[in-house]
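Entry 12.
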Amino acid sequence: YRAKQPGFLECSFPTIAGVGPNAAIIHYRAEENEILKHLDDKTPILIDSGGQYTYGTTDVTRTWHFGEATDEFKDAYTRVLKGNIGVDSMIFPENSPGFVLDVFARKALWEAGMDYGHGTGHGVGAALNVHEGPMSISPRFGNQEGLKKGMVISNEPGYYVDGKFGIRIENLLEIRFVDDALNEAAESDAEAKEEDKSATSGDKKFLKFNKLTMIPIQKNLIKVNLMTLQELDWLDAYHAEVFGKVSPHLEVGSPAMKWLEESCAKIERA
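Predicted 3D structure (tokens):
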């Protein structure tokens, strides 16, 4: 499918498609061997994939379940989602090192005695390395590289239970100034003037994240009682944005459009 898109160069990396316990192997690759699993409606699947294009690079992970998930799975899925939202919603000073944001990805998991053993975010190149430094979001506080406007970084908290399942929700984010005037200045001939001004000003510039990944999040895996009103509002707003940007590329009445409409409908809050 990707190869048919304009500007496609190659896949970002071999697709990770882990069914059931194989999803707990973080960099699993499906092969014809004794651990190969076949997808059914009893087990979840984690899919991590991406493409290299002349105009940029993608890297996205979603975890799906086509049957009735267990309460344990839904609890973990919801906490991973809360962590994703926690990072996505952050406003922080320019040049903050990524490790200061990592706790927001893990807070809901830590509250239940849960965690994951990989970083939360890595830099992404533009038709270059899908894992590209020097910045990151992780508990490794040795990386002091500050986050700056224009960087693209992943947001991918997860949770893994050996022998059972793995969960990861990954979006790519672009770092932007909170103040749109600074974004405009940085992207125009006024950039140098703004830099001169900042050299003599004590005012801090603050950053936020702009979502780049437009793929729905499976709503029936979410335990609504664990979500705050702000998190539910975030989810509805994200799905509205996904639908607004993706639906013009789909045929009205097609199976894909019907799936998108259902997937992007507001979540039931009762």
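Annotation: Residues 196-201 have pLDDT under 50 and may be disordered. The longest strand covers residues 171-177.
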